[in-house]
């Protein structure tokens, strides 16, 4: 892989290593600055004495890269809003009710009961503050405007780690975005109209387009247009999104390089009547860059959009200067600039998938092209389409399994059927959005676009219906993901070089991967475990015995928690069996379960589990039997949890509430 030899790529990789180190090793920025200064002085001394002494070039290059490692560590150490003494997290009280003054910055996906926004906090209970939170307004109330200043009152929910094993850590996701909590709004009042900021203007344009197209398109088609063209997936139907995921076409819904490329072609088509003189070429390049960045702001500047806009802007400038630019350099330049501006974007799933897909396309596409050389134009088009799709899927396969644990087997069919018509669909969509903004709606364009959307959705649903070709429930952790990337890279080297050493390395990487999987499974299966999960208004218990487990569950709302638990422990989902009992034995420990019937065990248990609000006083039984632990799950009400907590505190019995401390495990 010759691309790694470019200096800019090495600098970017060193900067990324610094970001990882800064995330793992929490030290003040001044210590990173001292390290950078020491490395810079060392480089200066070596450079000064190079004429008198022989210095290995790798030593000087290594020290230069070490400087960028330090810059990455210092940059992520500085990127912490909580270092500011005015951050609202320093003013949190025990009371959850609070009054805030906030500015809405962007809209998030709407939940079943709340319309959610990211908001900047200006005041917290009258105290001047800063910081960002997620604000949830009651659904179907008054419309809210991005950029507007609101006085809101509600209940604040601080960040809490995941409460169940294998569960998605939503608090870590919010913290990575620098959103340090959620506010459930009960009352809201507008204090000031939105200023003329770029996000407010972009949101105003989106709202105008949405309101005008709403009169001519049904709800599902309108949501799809807003997602395809403007990157707004808030109103997308959950079932339709799942169908796109199963068909391997979810990248079509996320505005990325495919969409930005079509926008570039659209702008260049509009600018074709201008002569190609030096003066008008300047006008063209300015219009192209303005058009790309305007589209980027309209689409919300998500990581994939930002990457694409930066890359295509670089390509457009290179074409204007009539200089050929290396694609790898352009890709890593955009990555370096994005991470320099927003270091925590490195942990954004969208950015990881976007850059990995593009990198593998640039690397694998030429190699896959050489494997098949059809003579006809149609054959070459199909080959290019399949090679690009295969390269992108191979590049994102480990990440997709790590984050989503499923893989669409018919992705190549989806891309082969949909991508050829995406140019027409994007053109119709851009034209419809432009007409809607200008308040000049031409019905034939909308009808043609509606027909194209219905056709695309029909193809997606047909492919997604082939359930046997959607491989889901695939366990994957970080170690397995990295080793799987090793197999893919060694496999590509074997196809490209075709010698003994490349084949040996490829087979060796497969062997290492298999040994790692064996070790991971042995680690998770070596002991028996009993877990009480936290579920709101429900009870969920799992009993793991090596690679299988049984469960107690009185409703079906907790099955997703069980699936996440099984994936995290590499358990086989097919071995689940329903388990209904009130007494358990595990490694000499007796566990007793008390439910709504209020029947306490007659013999002292080591652990007492209280579920479903039993109607009986605990004090007399606790004084008589005094278990080692008393555990209450989420099926109990607040008052009952409070009374049991106070009683256990008086009797000095260890108490565990899953709503506060998460799941309870016995090994």
Automatic annotation (TrEMBL):
<dbReference type="InterPro" id="IPR025405">
    <property type="entry name" value="DUF4131"/>
</dbReference>
<feature type="transmembrane region" description="Helical">
    <location>
        <begin position="7"/>
        <end position="24"/>
    </location>
</feature>
<feature type="transmembrane region" description="Helical">
    <location>
        <begin position="283"/>
        <end position="299"/>
    </location>
</feature>
<feature type="transmembrane region" description="Helical">
    <location>
        <begin position="470"/>
        <end position="494"/>
    </location>
</feature>
<dbReference type="InterPro" id="IPR004477">
    <property type="entry name" value="ComEC_N"/>
</dbReference>
<feature type="transmembrane region" description="Helical">
    <location>
        <begin position="249"/>
        <end position="271"/>
    </location>
</feature>
<feature type="transmembrane region" description="Helical">
    <location>
        <begin position="328"/>
        <end position="347"/>
    </location>
</feature>
<dbReference type="InterPro" id="IPR052159">
    <property type="entry name" value="Competence_DNA_uptake"/>
</dbReference>
<feature type="domain" description="DUF4131">
    <location>
        <begin position="28"/>
        <end position="188"/>
    </location>
</feature>
<keyword id="KW-0472">Membrane</keyword>
<keyword id="KW-1133">Transmembrane helix</keyword>
<feature type="transmembrane region" description="Helical">
    <location>
        <begin position="60"/>
        <end position="78"/>
    </location>
</feature>
<feature type="transmembrane region" description="Helical">
    <location>
        <begin position="416"/>
        <end position="438"/>
    </location>
</feature>
<feature type="transmembrane region" description="Helical">
    <location>
        <begin position="445"/>
        <end position="464"/>
    </location>
</feature>
<keyword id="KW-0812">Transmembrane</keyword>
<dbReference type="Pfam" id="PF03772">
    <property type="entry name" value="Competence"/>
</dbReference>
<dbReference type="GO" id="GO:0005886">
    <property type="term" value="C:plasma membrane"/>
</dbReference>
<feature type="transmembrane region" description="Helical">
    <location>
        <begin position="353"/>
        <end position="373"/>
    </location>
</feature>
<protein>
    <submittedName>
        <fullName>Competence protein ComEC</fullName>
    </submittedName>
</protein>
<dbReference type="Pfam" id="PF13567">
    <property type="entry name" value="DUF4131"/>
</dbReference>
<feature type="transmembrane region" description="Helical">
    <location>
        <begin position="385"/>
        <end position="404"/>
    </location>
</feature>
<keyword id="KW-1003">Cell membrane</keyword>
<feature type="transmembrane region" description="Helical">
    <location>
        <begin position="506"/>
        <end position="525"/>
    </location>
</feature>
<feature type="domain" description="ComEC/Rec2-related protein">
    <location>
        <begin position="228"/>
        <end position="497"/>
    </location>
</feature>
């Amino acid at each position: 892989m010759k691309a790694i030899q470019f200096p800019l790529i090495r600098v970017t990789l060193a900067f990324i290593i610094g970001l990882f180190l800064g995330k793992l090793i929490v030290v003040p920025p001044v210590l990173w600055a001292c390290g950078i200064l020491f490395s810079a002085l060392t480089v200066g001394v070596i450079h000064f004495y190079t004429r008198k002494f022989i210095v290995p070039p790798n030593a000087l290059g290594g020290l230069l890269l070490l400087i960028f490692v330090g810059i990455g560590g210092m940059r992520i150490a500085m990127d912490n809003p909580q270092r500011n003494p005015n951050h609202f997290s320093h003013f949190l009280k025990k009371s959850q009710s609070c009054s805030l003054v906030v500015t809405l910055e962007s809209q998030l996906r709407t939940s079943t009961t709340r319309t959610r926004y990211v908001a900047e906090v200006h005041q917290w209970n009258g105290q001047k503050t800063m910081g960002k939170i997620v604000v949830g307004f009651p659904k179907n109330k008054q419309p809210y405007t991005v950029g507007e200043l609101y006085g809101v009152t509600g209940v604040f929910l601080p960040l809490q780690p995941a409460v169940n094993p294998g569960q998605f850590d939503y608090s870590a996701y919010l913290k990575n975005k620098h959103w340090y909590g959620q506010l459930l709004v009960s009352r809201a009042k507008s204090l000031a109209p939105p200023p003329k900021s770029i996000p407010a203007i972009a949101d105003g344009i989106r709202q105008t387009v949405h309101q005008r197209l709403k009169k001519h398109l049904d709800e599902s088609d309108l949501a799809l247009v807003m997602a395809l063209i403007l990157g707004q997936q808030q109103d997308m139907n959950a079932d339709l999104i799942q169908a796109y995921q199963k068909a391997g076409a979810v990248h079509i819904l996320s505005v990325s390089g495919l969409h930005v490329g079509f926008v570039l072609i659209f702008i260049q088509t509009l600018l074709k009547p201008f002569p190609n003189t030096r003066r008008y070429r300047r006008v063209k390049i300015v219009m192209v860059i303005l058009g790309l960045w305007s589209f980027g702001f309209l689409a919300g500047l998500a990581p994939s959009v930002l990457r694409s806009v930066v890359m295509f802007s670089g390509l457009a400038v290179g074409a204007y200067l009539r200089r050929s630019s290396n694609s790898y350099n352009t890709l890593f330049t955009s990555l370096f600039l994005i991470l320099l501006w927003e270091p925590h974007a490195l942990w954004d799933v969208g950015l990881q998938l976007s850059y990995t897909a593009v990198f593998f396309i640039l690397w694998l596409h030429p190699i896959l092209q050489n494997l098949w050389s059809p003579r006809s134009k149609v054959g070459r088009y199909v080959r290019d389409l399949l090679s690009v799709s295969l390269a992108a899927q191979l590049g994102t396969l480990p990440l997709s399994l790590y984050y989503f644990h499923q893989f669409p087997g018919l992705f190549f069919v989806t891309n082969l059927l949909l991508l050829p018509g995406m140019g027409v669909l994007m053109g119709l969509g851009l034209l419809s959005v432009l007409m809607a903004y200008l308040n000049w709606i031409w019905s034939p364009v909308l009808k043609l676009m509606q027909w194209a959307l219905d056709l695309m959705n029909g193809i997606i649903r047909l492919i997604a219906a082939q359930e046997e070709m959607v491989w889901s429930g695939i366990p994957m952790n970080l170690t397995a993901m990295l080793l799987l990337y090793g197999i893919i890279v060694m496999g590509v080297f074997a196809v490209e070089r075709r010698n003994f050493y490349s084949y040996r390395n490829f087979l060796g990487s497969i062997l290492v991967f298999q040994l790692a999987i064996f070790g991971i499974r042995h680690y998770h299966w070596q002991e028996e475990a009993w877990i009480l999960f936290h579920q709101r208004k429900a009870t969920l218990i799992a009993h793991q015995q090596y690679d299988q487990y049984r469960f107690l569950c009185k409703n079906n709302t907790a099955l997703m928690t069980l699936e996440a638990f099984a994936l995290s422990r590499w358990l086989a989902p097919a071995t689940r069996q329903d388990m209904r009992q009130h007494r358990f034995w595990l490694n000499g420990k007796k566990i007793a379960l008390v439910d709504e019937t209020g029947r306490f065990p007659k013999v002292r248990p080591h652990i007492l589990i209280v579920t479903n609000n039993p109607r009986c006083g605990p004090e007399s039984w606790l004084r008589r039997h005094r278990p080692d632990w008393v555990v209450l799950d989420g099926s109990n009400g607040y008052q009952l949890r409070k009374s049991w907590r106070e009683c256990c505190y008086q009797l000095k019995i260890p108490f565990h509430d899953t709503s506060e401390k998460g799941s309870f495990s016995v090994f």
